Structures are given as structure tokens and as C-alpha cells.
Amino acid sequence: MPTLSVYRLHFRAGLHLGVRGVTLEEAAVSLPSDTLFSALVDAWQRLGGPVERWLAPFLQEPPDPPFVLTSAFPFAGAVRFYPMPVDLRGLFAQPEAGKRVKRIAYLSEGLLRRALSGEKLDDWLPPEGPTGPDDPGQSAGLLLQEGKLWLDGETELKQLPQWMHVDPKSRRPRPRAAYPHLEAWKEGRTPRVTIDRISSASNIFHIGHVRFAQECGLWFGVQWRRPAQRIEGTSTTYAESVTAALQFLQDEGLGGDRSVGYGAFTLETGQEGTAREAVSLPDSSPGGMAWLLSRFHPRTPAEIATLQAEGVAYRLVDVAGWLRSPDGPAQRRRRIHLLAEGSWLPAGETVLGGLVDVQPVYENQEGMLSHPVYRSGFGVAVGFTQEANHG
Amino acid sequence: MSKQIQLRGRIFLEFNLHAVSGLHIGGSEVGVEIGGVDKTVIRDPLTNRPYIPGSSLKGKVRSLLEKYEGLPQNQSIGQKVSIHTCDTSEKYATCDVCQVFGVPGERDFGTPTRLVVRDVQMTAESIARLEENGRTDLPYTEVKTEVSIDRVTSAANPRQMERVPAGTVFGPAELVYSIYEGDGCDSQRDVERFARLVEGLVLLEDDYLGGLGSRGSGKVRLAQIQVKLRSRNELLQPAQLLGQFDALEQLVAALPQLQEQIRDQLAQA
């Protein structure tokens, strides 16, 4: 039973997460698990914590991480969203449903639980095309964000932010047909300019960013295995270190362009900065499938072999980008491939993964950093009780 | 052995920014409608309200300080633009502007950028005032027509500029100033350097923010200034209020005493 401590991030301004490092003008809405892990390590280092000791349990053989992280996904009001699976065929009885669901990127927790218990979600798909307000054949499901978010249109609808239910201008309840056009976030490009100090000549450039609406943001889960474990040689527990690092990151920000206000967030926390809520999701039964909620890097031969198993469906993302270290200039990391969120793997003890060293290697040893650079490939998965249907 | 630094604390400088004259911070000119204005202001895409980007505030203050200090303009950006960034670690060690405002990532001697400047949104009162009086040409903004006139024929060439009206208040602005100790960082120097940031804000009040500044726009005034501190052992507590000031002159007068307070607090942490 994976129990996730839920951290909800309310972004105070835009968020700029570079996509594939091509231009500054692209930004992503997701905040993957490996990025979050690296942010925690960097924060811990800047707080003066011993990084090598902190990483020890993640690096030992076999790895025994005190906690693992999911990627961050959107939330709207009290409704949390999860990644759509890579293989849609297991979700629907009617294979042609695939056409209508191409746009959906995230499904709500209610729908996820139904899917995990083996229910088919065909009836929750809103009909195609516009429907009248009194359409008798109205589906129980609902879409938001131009069809990217999919939720249960009865109980979860009530948990959306107030401004989604009632139009703030006219103070009237919104018709159902208006929901797909409501936006929990908006992607945009901000023009920016550098002005020459002497001639006042200008050089324009653009930055892509994501801005979240009121009461919407991103959430991620921490699956604690041993929160009370102490960092080697200190009296600090891992739970305390994660809390401190997250407090630090609130003002520091996540993603790029932080010094001009991007990426700063406010964390919803309970006592002493700990997570306020937890969510328990079904475990996978032997022979079932696991649904990835994080990125994942198979490490052992057994883990790699599972990718060949019956019913497996995965998507690969290539992860590259910059690294920052106090010991040298910013430089490109080595590129690695990770399994993306929403991939399906055989359940069991085989979804653990490990850290990958992405320190750049140069022929000239002098330019090398003095320490390894790790990227997290630890996986978090929930159980899916039915056999994936490849009929 | 890898380098080691440690965050000693953070100073939060919060204030309201009053637009004494109309404010024009340019936005994107995509989707210009027929009959629309030529030069639009930047707006939050979700609320459609104008705001002051952190990058405008930070860039302007950096630019003013570079000119005030007379720093060499050695880093070329694009074709016609140069700014100052230190290119050797010796210069960087003594350059307050680069330590506070940052250097490019490819410098191998860089330490963390001390200053983070957040976007500044309109205050609730200003939003209500602009929404209710209904006299703005566009939502929350005025359209100011400017014209250049031929000296001989008197032919006119009008164009339209969008501005946030004078009297609008943005706030609270939040400037986060981090204090580090360790390799290449000296917390005592960081506390001293905080004065550079305040100097930059004085220069900003005398200058302008945004565009069209040499012809009247962009005069801003700081008010309701608060200085808060969160030292490293109070990470989970709200930042502690060290002083409140109605105007920038008062902050300047109280600065030596504030820096003393900050040093004492950090010494205990």
C-alpha cells in the first residue's frame, strides 16, 4: 500500500521549466521526480548539509532509500490529478475510445482509483462535441483545461475551486459546457529586454512560463520508507532534512530564472512544516501491473528484464540539461533515458531503480568536476489489479 | 574536496510601489487588434491585470548601479547591447553588483546570486478602484496618444501608448536577499552589501521604471517598507520583522542600525 505524504505547491508567480534545453521560450507544466530530487539535494547543500552522507543510503548496494518521490502533477481545489497511462487499452472496454482521449494528459484521483480496481472508464468519458445543458445522455465525467484534465463530474466537481463553479463576474453558476474551457494554468511567453547602459539599445528575448490560477498548482507525493532514519554522522533525520530543504526552496524557487521571481511557491503544510495530508493507493498484487507515478531508471538485470514482460507499456523520455555546482562552471549533464510517468510495468519488488551518475566526462581531465552528479531514477508505482487487456 | 557554503539567513525587503506617473512596462505585441494600441503593457495572462515583472525591477536597479559604480560594459548580449559582468575571480571578489545580482552560469567562480526579485501584482484597493470608476480606456489602463510633429510641415504622426494610470499601487513587492558563508562567500560582506541594494532603490526613485521614462512615465515611489529577517535556525518560523518605514529616506537613515541588528541575529544562529 503506497502511502504518499502530499505536498501541494501554490506558485506565487510563473514557473519556468526548460524543455529539452533548446530555447528559453518553451516551458513545461510538469515537474518530474528527478528534478525534484535534484532540487532537494541542491537545497540541502546550500543549507550547509553534508551531501555525500545524505546520499549514502541512496547509493549503497542494493539501494535502500529512506524515501522516494513521485513527479509533481496538477491539482485544482481539492482534486488531485495523476498521469494518464501510456497504454490506454487497459482503461476502456471500447478500443475506439482511444481517439477521444488523446488530448487527456491527467486523470483525477477518483477515476484513478476506479481504474485501479479494474473498472472500465468508458462511461466517464464526456461525449464528443457540444452538449445542451439539459442533455439527458450527459456523461458522469468532465473535462477541464481544453480537455487535458479529466475528472468525475459529480463528487469531484464539488471539490473544484469556487471560481470554477460560480462565474465571479456574473455570480451565476457556470453551465456544464463551460468547464472544458476553464484553465487551471496558462502557458505563455513573456517578452523581456536587455537595455544597453550607455546607448539604450535594446535586445529583446522571450521566456516561456506557466502560471497557475487561484487554488490550483502542482502536488507531489513522498513515499516514506524510514522517515526517522538519521543522516550518517548527524542527529538530523531524513524527515527533518526534507522539511528544511522544502522550506528553503519556497523562497529559492524551482526551475529556471529564479532570480527574477520565477518558481517561488508556498507550501501547504501542517505542524512543523510536515505534509498536511496523506493518500493511500492500492498496492499491486502479484501478477498485476504497476502504474508509474514518477520517472524510473531500471538498474538491475531483473528490473531491465521486466521491460520485456507481457503487457508492459512504457514511454521513454530523454533527460539532459545543465548542472550547477559550486566547484565549477555550469555545464551540460550527460544525457540519460528514463521511463516516463504513466508507464505500466509488472508489479513486484522490481520498481525501485537507483541514482545515475550524469557527470560530464571530458578527455581533458582538468575540466572535470571534482564530484559525481546524480540524477534520481527511483520509481514510485501504484498497483493495477487487472491484466492489461491487449485484445 | 568539494566547496562548501552555508545559508546563514535571508533578508526580506517588502514594500508597496506607487506609480507616481503613468507606468509603461511593455508587453507582447502579438494579437494586436485593428484599432488597438501600438504599445501594450505586460499583463498576467490569467487575470489580465498589469503587473511589474521581477525582471524589470531587478534589471533596472542593476543597470543603475552599474552606471553609478562606473563598471566596464564587457559582456555583449545580442548585437548592440553590452552589460557588465565580472570575468575574473579577482574582480568578482570585490564587485558588489555581480555578487548581489549574479553572473552568467559559465563563470567557474560564481557564488549563488544573493538577490531574488519577485513579480509585483496590483494591490486589491487599486484593482477595485480601477474596476469601479470605469474611466479607463482599456481594462486597468489608459491609452495615451503621443505625436511627433514635422518641424517644417507640421505633419503629425500619432501613435498610441498604453499605460497603467498614475496613482496605481503595486504590492507587496518582495526582494529576497540571501546571506551565505563559506567558499567564496562572507556573511559579513553580504550584510554590508545589502546597502548597495538600498542605494539601487534610491537611484530607482530618482530615475524611472519601464519605458517612456524620459518623457514623464515611470516615476515610482516606495512606501510601507518592511525589513524582515529569517536566520538559519528559524527556517520553519515566519520571518521576524526588524523595522517598518513609510519612505525610502527613513530606511536609508536606519540602515546602519538594521545591519547591526542583522549581524547580531546571525551571530546567534
UniProtKB/TrEMBL annotation, chain A:
The keyword RNA-binding applies. Keywords: Antiviral defense, RNA-binding. Belongs to the CRISPR-associated Csm4 family. This is CRISPR system Cms protein Csm4. Residues 289-383 form the Csm4 C-terminal domain. It holds the Pfam family Csm4_C. GO terms for molecular function: RNA binding. GO terms for biological process: defense response to virus. It comes from the Bacteria.
TrEMBL record, chain B:
Pfam families: RAMPs. Transmembrane segments: none annotated. Keywords: Antiviral defense, Endonuclease, Hydrolase, Nuclease, RNA-binding. It comes from Litorilinea aerophila. One of its GO terms (molecular function) is endonuclease activity. Belongs to the CRISPR-associated Csm3 family. PANTHER family: CRISPR SYSTEM CMS ENDORIBONUCLEASE CSM3. The keyword Zinc does not apply. NCBIfam families: cas7_TM1809. One of its GO terms (biological process) is defense response to virus. Residues 17-220 form the CRISPR type III-associated protein domain. This is CRISPR system Cms endoribonuclease Csm3.
